[in-house]
Amino acid sequence: MTESIKTLPLVFEEPKGRGKPPRHLADLTPAERKARLEELGLPGFRARQLSTHYFSRLVDDPEQMTDLPAGQRAELVEGLLPHLMTPLKTQEADRGTTRKTLWKLFDGALVESVLMRYPGRVTICVSSQAGCGMACPFCATGQGGLQRNMSTAEIVEQVVAGARALARDEVAGGPGRISNVVFMGMGEPMANYKAVIGAVRRLTDPTPDGLGMSARGITVSTVGLVPRINQLAEEGIPVTLALSLHAPDDELRDELVPINTRWKVGETVEAAWNYARVTKRRVSIEYAMMRGINDQAWRADLLADVLMRGDWGWVHVNLIPLNEVPGSQFTRSTDQDTDEFVRRLLARGIPTTVRDTRGSDIDAACGQLAATEA
């Protein structure tokens, strides 16, 4: 059944020859921001004022930064708040409560973010790489290959831009605040580990040094880079780990998630269990339901066996109705097969839910909008 699945080679290093994004205050610690201004011959104490405008007041117009001296304002902004990305297209769905934005980075690379408003919370899904080198055949981003890693500031800017839109009442439902950030957009977050951890720290740093978010509202996903999962467990930041498993057996996962040829299902799940043990945070197992590929009832039973690690409370299975990519061999499982999959996992005592899909009419799958524009 899986013999016809075609996968691309894994790519861990970004192509050479690309320039680096300009340094932004979101790339830097408070002390580094001060030092950066002093290197430019500007007063270091202004760094805190710039941080307040960016993270607390969500200001992006220098003319509104009236506490900065008019004669130095342009230099200060250029020094710590350089322009990072330009919105090319915004699509809305779900009566305006879902907004997908296509961004162009300084070098022309394209990335996407999605803002989703639910009753009681607002979640933004952000990209961590332009493209992806993990080559999962059912993923639009994976089929496009890796262009480059994003900087910490480029990742943070997606969240700040979403926060601005909410604060300015540009999203249906009235003014609001972002409560959750999920690293589930374009790219493999663990393959850009340093920048992603930097972004998590900027999101959780108290204002005005950062956005002041709770780490418990942040989810970092991975297809299973085991050494990075273990490293994340020691960071002391209690984010939620989401493991994109998609198959409980090595034979199928080798084809659906090529990184499995390096770290097998057992080793990957063991690393996830260790993360839950160390952080006391429940791990989310992401499982995209694909008709006739990984949605058989016996695979639900096998998944339950694979996840048997001590206390059942360590894990939650999140079944994802597949976002179908035009021209792909992969299609969404039937509701009947999904319901049976859920029933079997619940019967084994494993908490399981089906993801509430958003934006099905706006190129919802990660990478689709960027691929269309490119």
Tell me the CATH architecture of the largest domain: Alpha-Beta Barrel
In whole angstroms, how far apart are the ends? Answer: 33 Å
What letter string, H or E per element, gives the SSE order? HHHEEEEEHEHEHEHEHHEHEHEH
Task: Tell me the Rg in angstroms.
Answer: 21 Å
Number of domains: 2
Tell me what you see in this structure:
The protein has 374 residues and is of the alpha/beta class. The chain folds into two domains: 25-80, DNA polymerase, domain 1 (Orthogonal Bundle); 85-373, Aldolase class I (TIM Barrel, Alpha-Beta Barrel), CATH 3.20.20.70. Helices cover 32% and strands 18% of the residues. The chain contains twelve helices and twelve strands. It has a ten-stranded mixed beta sheet with strand order 1-2-3-4-7-8-9-10-11-12, with helices on one face. A two-stranded antiparallel sheet has the order 5-6. Helix 7 links the parallel strand 8 (218-222) and strand 9 (240-244). Helix 1 packs across helix 2 (46-56). It starts with 29 loop residues before the first helix and ends with a helix. 48% of the residues are buried. The mean pLDDT is 93.
Core attributes:
single chain; 374 residues; alpha/beta; DNA polymerase, domain 1; TIM Barrel; 2 domains; 10-stranded mixed sheet; 12 helices; 12 strands
List the helices and strands and how they pair.
Elements: H1 30-39, H2 46-56, H3 73-80, E1 85-93, E2 98-105, E3 110-118, E4 121-125, E5 129-131, H4 140-144, E6 146-149, H5 152-167, E7 180-183, H6 193-204, E8 218-222, H7 226-233, E9 240-244, H8 250-256, H9 265-279, E10 283-289, H10 297-306, E11 315-321, H11 335-347, E12 352-354, H12 368-373
Parallel strand pairs: 4-7, 7-8, 8-9, 9-10, 10-11, 11-12
Antiparallel strand pairs: 1-2, 2-3, 3-4, 5-6
